[in-house]
Amino acid sequence: MISLLVVFKRLFQAARRGWRDPAFRGLLILAFTILVVGMFFYRRVEGWTLLNSLYFSVVTLTTVGYGDLSPQTGAGRAFTIFYVLIGLGIIIGLVTQLASKAVEAQAERTEQRQKKRKTGE
Fold it and tell me: Is-above-0.70 flag for pTM?
């Protein structure tokens, strides 16, 4: 349980670090926007609740795909094709940026520890 908390702490630290970077910030805003667009589209076209629509959008763009919800209308299916092709690239870009920021933070922590050891000796 503690290791899970450490992972989340580092994830949020990486996100905070990334927020300073305009490319990361743009991807984060774009990812949020595409999730909101999907949520409102599925609400309107498929008649799902906002929560189910958001759930489907997240599950689809993270490629989890439980299969408990699926578009039943032609418009919903057509939209989903383009939604996945566009949204997946955005989500992958965001995750790549987030991982990059986490690696940078880890490298800085390692460097700081090494400096402390050298000065402490």
Answer: yes
